[in-house]
């Protein structure tokens, strides 16, 4: 069994007491329905039912539109933050530290204010220009955010208590690393979303598909262990998951590229005060004819093939999600072994906490954002210019011409 | 009895009881105790004055060094900032190693330095692409690096992340995660803020010199005021700091900053943004000084008019800004120092390192500077400069594959 015999048994790195994540948290209705089954099958059924429930929930919130998605992303972020901070409290037995819970949540609010304020100022520019107080907040946004953060920093310094210095510094660092991971990446997810819902749906679906496919391939064909950190993962699952995810991503990209609802950047109509998703689809969502290389021409006897360019991009996204994305999962596994916890929390029966489901998503979200910014979209750069226009007191105007 | 310091020094390492038996025959314990106390006082006072001298000499040496590197120009300054950053990073990481006894962790030193290089590559690459745009456009490989800069930086960071995951060793998981977090928090503090210092520098050397001088002056003035007038302790974290030092340091720093701003605003060398001349391949610091460095006439409020019998006063607007910078540096800046004091108490270390005799490590000198550098950057970006926004636009022009052109018109 992994995880025992950690060499560092010092007073300042205490063991985490057995968490309540190990206790059964399944709802009564499921329990009754599965009474007759042996325990292992019961576990599989619970996991399966919850998986389907989560996927259904995913479709539902996509249907309900951008505002719901933003709210869901924000709730996930807050829940993940709370889960990780709670683990920190248990590790350091620091519930009784003065001020610390307040400060952690205060820093969360500050960083969120900074990021969402930048987003609101960028995307809801017209709305901001109308309202006087919003204009002030937008123009001096960075200064206000910095002042808020500084207030928290000074409160932390003033709250240092003689016997608890080290604990307090540990919790300070723990909070900041958690903010760095959780909040910045949820912000990147929102920015991807504004590019077009397809940039939100496809990466998340890729990670979900890879999880499920790697699990199934590993279940049926798995023999060679992949990495010591996660003994249940196998090379067969890894490679099978990779190929099936690439195919899945390819097909999903084809299906979604046809609808404006997914493909168009999310815009805000200031007259009707609502989100509009209508546009002339960008070039990568317009079907194009590609000439196949000679080798494939002879095999398939097709000369050309009609593809959306986005499908080519989806191959790169799927490859990343299957090959590098799992490292996020291994990182989380190592973290759980390091602190001797089975799951981050027991929010979802059979699956653990929210963080357990989202550990691979974070790398994917960051990669997608960097991918868009580097290879695809100019929109993000336009936003930088809009930033200039709204923040400078001189009201510069900028015109773009294509050379 | 007459003792000379040479004698005291040579016996300083002996037990005082031994000294007593050397100097007197200890027949009378009263005489021995008295001589013991006397010797103890001489030794400790000698060492105290020696310590003050060392601190004083090193302080002057550092200030002189500061003037020297300012004289030598922007490239030297950038190199010095980079070296300070690397030394601070090394000091904090070494403390982490000692706290966690983790010298023997596989790969970890390599990974820490690798992450430092990655983050520096990201930040300095952005700066180089922004400020040396013409140079970048000329060279083909640089163009490629500049256009896909973020992707390349992210890929480099990811490689380090994957290496970390692969290096996790069964019995050392928790240690390795601690060191990973330690490294990242250190990078967050040290590297991002050294990058902000460099960006301030490019705004104009005055934005580099004045904040640093403000912090140095506040340190020295608060120390002197505390030394001569200090009675009320300020905060339990740093028992040597006093309210008298704090308030005295505040007022003297504001005055100092005001005067320094006046002195420096007159020279183009300090006031102009640092530019790069691609023909001559050198830095040029020439420009039409911005409005805040042009003397203006301010009408004094009525109250001061009656007191001083001046109607107007000629000031550089930058001097008004310097009052705000000085206030921050004296009132909020010390919190950076308290944070570092708390950190040292938490991990039971006296100084970050022993690099500077009498002063400790580089980090000990720079702990207050970091908050100041960040504040200066935010201050410039919010209230003063449009240059940073122009840079964002230049970023667009150079990174997009469509070669958009942007023209600015003032409405």
UniProtKB/TrEMBL annotation, chain A:
Membrane topology per record: Multi-pass membrane protein
Enzyme category, top tier: transferase
Residue segments, region Disordered: 1-27
Subcellular location: Membrane
Catalytic activity, EC: 2.7.7.41
Keywords, sorted A to Z: Lipid biosynthesis, Lipid metabolism, Membrane, Nucleotidyltransferase, Phospholipid biosynthesis, Phospholipid metabolism, Transferase, Transmembrane, Transmembrane helix
Transmembrane segments: 44-76, 97-116, 143-161, 168-190, 196-222, 234-256, 310-332, 362-384
Role according to the record: Catalyzes the conversion of phosphatidic acid (PA) to CDP-diacylglycerol (CDP-DAG), an essential intermediate in the synthesis of phosphatidylglycerol, cardiolipin and phosphatidylinositol.
Name listed for the protein in its UniProt record: Phosphatidate cytidylyltransferase
Gene: cds1
From TrEMBL, chain B:
Enzyme Commission no: 2.7.7.41
PANTHER family: PHOSPHATIDATE CYTIDYLYLTRANSFERASE, PHOSPHATIDATE CYTIDYLYLTRANSFERASE 1
Catalytic activity: 1-hexadecanoyl-2-(5Z,8Z,11Z,14Z-eicosatetraenoyl)-sn-glycero-3-phosphate + CTP + H(+) = 1-hexadecanoyl-2-(5Z,8Z,11Z,14Z-eicosatetraenoyl)-sn-glycero-3-cytidine-5'-diphosphate + diphosphate; a 1,2-diacyl-sn-glycero-3-phosphate + CTP + H(+) = a CDP-1,2-diacyl-sn-glycerol + diphosphate; 1-octadecanoyl-2-(5Z,8Z,11Z,14Z-eicosatetraenoyl)-sn-glycero-3-phosphate + CTP + H(+) = 1-octadecanoyl-2-(5Z,8Z,11Z,14Z-eicosatetraenoyl)-sn-glycero-3-cytidine-5'-diphosphate + diphosphate; 1,2-di-(9Z-octadecenoyl)-sn-glycero-3-phosphate + CTP + H(+) = 1,2-di-(9Z-octadecenoyl)-sn-glycero-3-cytidine-5'-diphosphate + diphosphate
EC top class named in words: transferase
Family that this chain belongs to: Belongs to the CDS family.
Keyword terms, alphabetized: Lipid biosynthesis, Lipid metabolism, Membrane, Nucleotidyltransferase, Phospholipid biosynthesis, Phospholipid metabolism, Signal, Transferase, Transmembrane, Transmembrane helix
Protein known as: Phosphatidate cytidylyltransferase
Cross-referenced PROSITE patterns: CDS (PS01315)
């Amino acid at each position: 069994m992994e995880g025992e015999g950690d060499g560092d048994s010092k007073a300042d790195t205490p063991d985490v007491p057995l968490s309540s994540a190990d206790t059964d948290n399944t709802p009564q209705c499921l329990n009754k329905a599965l009474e007759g089954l042996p325990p292992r099958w019961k576990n599989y059924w619970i996991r399966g039912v919850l998986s389907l429930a989560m996927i259904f929930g995913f479709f539902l919130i996509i249907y309900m539109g951008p505002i719901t998605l933003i709210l869901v992303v924000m709730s996930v972020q807050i829940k993940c933050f709370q889960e990780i901070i709670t683990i920190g409290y248990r590790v350091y037995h620091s519930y009784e530290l003065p001020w610390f819970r307040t400060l952690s949540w205060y820093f969360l609010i500050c960083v969120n204010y900074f990021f969402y304020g930048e987003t609101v100022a960028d995307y809801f520019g017209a709305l901001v220009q109308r309202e006087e107080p919003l204009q002030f907040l937008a123009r001096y946004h960075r200064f206000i955010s910095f002042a808020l953060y500084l207030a928290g920093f000074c409160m932390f310094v003033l709250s240092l208590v003689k016997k608890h210095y080290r604990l307090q510094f540990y919790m300070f660092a723990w909070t900041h690393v958690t903010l760095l991971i959780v909040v910045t990446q949820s912000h990147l997810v929102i920015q991807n979303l504004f590019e077009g819902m397809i940039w939100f749906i496809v990466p998340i679906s890729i990670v979900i598909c890879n999880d499920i496919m790697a699990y199934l391939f590993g279940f049926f064909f798995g023999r060679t262990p992949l990495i010591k950190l996660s003994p249940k993962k196998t090379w067969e699952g890894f490679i099978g998951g990779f190929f099936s995810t690439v195919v899945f991503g390819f097909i999903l990209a084809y299906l979604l590229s046809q609808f404006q609802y997914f493909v168009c950047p999310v815009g805000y109509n200031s007259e009707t005060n609502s989100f509009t998703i209508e546009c002339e689809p960008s070039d990568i969502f317009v079907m194009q004819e590609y000439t196949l290389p000679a080798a494939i021409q002879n095999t398939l006897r097709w000369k050309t093939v009609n593809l959306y360019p986005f499908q080519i991009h989806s191959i790169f996204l799927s490859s990343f999600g299957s090959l590098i994305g799992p490292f996020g999962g291994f990182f989380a596994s190592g973290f759980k072994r390091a602190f001797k916890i089975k799951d981050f929390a027991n929010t979802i029966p059979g699956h653990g906490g929210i963080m357990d489901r989202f550990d691979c998503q974070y790398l994917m979200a960051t990669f997608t954002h960097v991918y868009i910014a580097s290879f695809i979209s100019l929109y993000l750069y336009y936003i930088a210019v809009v930033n200039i226009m709204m923040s400078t007191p001189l009201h510069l105007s900028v015109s773009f011409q294509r050379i």
